[in-house]
Specification:
heterodimer; A: 66 residues; mainly beta; 1 helix; B: 263 residues; alpha/beta; 3-stranded parallel sheet; 9 helices; globular
Amino acid sequence: MKITVNGKSQLVEPSCTAAQLVELMGISSGRIAMEVNQEIVPRSTYEQYSFEDNDVVEIVHAVGGG
Amino acid sequence: MTALQDTPLVVAGKSYQSRLLVGTGKYKDMDETREAIETSGAEIVTVAVRRSNIGQNPDEPNLLDVISPEKYTILPNTAFCFTAEDALRTCRLARELLDGHNLVKLEVLGDEQTLYPDIPATLKAAEILVKEGFEVMVYTSDDPLIAKRLEEMGCVAVMPLAAPIGSGLGIRNPYNILTIIENANVPIIVDAGVGTASDAAIAMELGCEGVLMNTAIAAAQKPVLMASAMKKAIEAGREAYLAGRMPRKRFASASSPIDGLIV
């Protein structure tokens, strides 16, 4: 199925979890946050959280800023 | 307390010895970021929240590994948000990112040329964030009425600009900043517009509780040295404020006694 991750289209398995997506995307640092369809997905639930077709996912981290 | 001891800066119930708050943007690399921030002595450090670089630079260090939340109070900033909704989303993501830490810097900008705050959107976002349990340090204009309104809404610190973000023009309207300070029951922290050490000292001499800056340090020719200068300027300005400056006089007043002159 197709989801959107940080503005880009991404094909994933229908059972893909948030934890699997993070691994698939090659994100190694744990200091991230995820939002799906503008709702926060707590890091503690990544293993159980499954995406649905057309979900819009944002994965963010801290960067330098004022 | 001796004459040379000061009370700490208290924000949202937490005490800080340093009255200099710094950003982490515009440095050439993570090493320079770390060195400048350590040298500044700052305890509250702002960060921005951005999309993770998926598949790119996997070895690039994470900012929070360099500026660690165990050592610093991390202040996530809604930098470059132009709507209340974007600012709210950013704050909620930041709270998740920082394991429930709810101190945020709210800034909702109005246009790209001035980076002036959009006040109606700032008020709207502040109201919702306070309701959601965030502790809001809010970037605003130097309008005393708006500053007071933001305090009354429950913001934990009000942070008027001294001049446009990144402009380095210094305190353009000291009388407004002074009025804001005189009316306030929460810390007033000048945020944005400081260009060099004397600007920071002036802000502190006016009675600000602190100064937040980024570009003035990061865009200096030698950022680490400027971080050191800013630390001293903040301390000097604070001591001068506590000491109480002499009144200005139009004409001279001799420093040495006139009695006993040999002529």
